[in-house]
Design goal:
The protein is an alpha+beta fold. Helices cover 45% and strands 11% of the residues. It has helices at 28-40, 44-55, 92-104, 106-113, 119-127, 152-167, 170-175, 180-201, 222-231, 263-284, 294-302, 311-319, 325-334, 339-361, 368-380, 435-447; strands spanning 5-6, 11-13, 62-65, 68-74, 80-86, 140-143, 390-392, 397-400, 405-409, 415-421, 424-427. Strands 1-2-3-4-5-6 form a 6-stranded antiparallel sheet. The protein has a 5-stranded antiparallel sheet with strand order 7-8-9-10-11. Helix 11 packs across helix 14 (339-361). Residues 1-5, 210-217, 288-305 and 450-463 have low confidence and may be disordered.
Amino acid sequence: MSGYGYGDDERTFAALPPAQGGAFTRTWWGRAWLKALEDTALDGQQLKAGRRHARAGAVGAVSVRPGRITAVVKDRDGTSHRSDVLVREFSEEEWERLLDLAVDSAGHIAALLDREMPPHLVEDAAAAGLDLLPGIGDLDPECGCEAWDHCPHTTALCYQVARLIDEDPFVLLLMRGRGERTLLDQLQSRSVSRAARVDRAADDPSGVDVPEGDDGMAGVSAEEAYAEGFLLPPLPAPPAVPDGPGRSPSLDTETEPAPGIDPVALEFLASDAAARAHRMLVVALGASGEGLPGPQASQESHESHESPLTPAQDAVRLAAGSPVPWIAARLASGSGRTRAEMDLAARAWRFGGAAALAVLEEEWAPDAEALARASARLLEAWEDDERPTLRRAGGARWTAVGAEAQLRLGKDGHWWPYLKSGARWSPAGPADRDPATALATALAGDTAGTGGTGEGGSTGDGD
């Protein structure tokens, strides 16, 4: 439904295009509006003329306010007339009764939120003496053509408004005196107050009736549950992201630990858990994570990995945080690695988590199709006169001839740069989709003299 003005006490809708045949309305409440018009008007010919005006698009922008709708309507000769139709507003007491009826059923509110007029609400209101939809004589015309009854201009306006309330019953409620935002705020406030009263009464269940399902369990319909989601008070603003994780408690007490329990190791694990919780909180609260140190950012990247870590992988993750030497040594020993192998594994982890660790420690053999794709990618990565000489070193590894650099292809299609230090290969940087970029990273490290760690224990080849 088009509209260019929106306020809680007035809404202005742009002129609607001509109506091409068929009925003006498709909903029962839209038809009820037109029935009120047809039952009120004394001259059937005026009704027909107004319907023709509306179909021809002669009604301009429509302004809807409490108790009144207004538009300029043109005759066929181009003469314009300001036309108004007055609708009785509800009193404060009547609105109180209607709000109570609406809050009694979450389904009423769910229907309104879905831009539907719930028939049970209309019926309940009528039973309480409130005619939500207009009846005979409720649409009072005023027109610049000075007709004393409905004329073609006010009739055309009513037909056009029928199309508006067809799409949004809140238009009708605005005529009765309440804007959408005010109405929904009042419904929410009443619902929250009622829920609070029920909660207070919960301490005395004898005074509260709780509807039950066939199995004796309390429940609500899906429609009511949907509406309750709207009626609940808004969530508080999320807390600010803390600057860092909290300090883990000290386990150094006078009481001797149980056999096999190492308090210092437990403190280390508690600190790691706090750091991981902080990283998760940064992500959950929508922070960018750009302030995290490099190794922490890499670990955070991996912690969203679908597969849980094995103990050997988790040992590398812990070692990548640069713990004190004796803890690093225990992590290496516990994961079946030498200290030099753990240093290389931790270096790989910092560049790319479990994926980087797999490229370091596991050699896989691509099938014919994957190998063909990799070879084609290597050919496309450089111009003919710039392409380095690469020799396949088994599996998914290619060594640059004449340089201490190597490319390793991961199972995910990323290329990893490696540098040789002595007889061992060491990770030289993060992965890249482009093998040329990955090789440039390795060669830059080689030029800078940073290839390898001098402590290597890689399981790679020595080519």
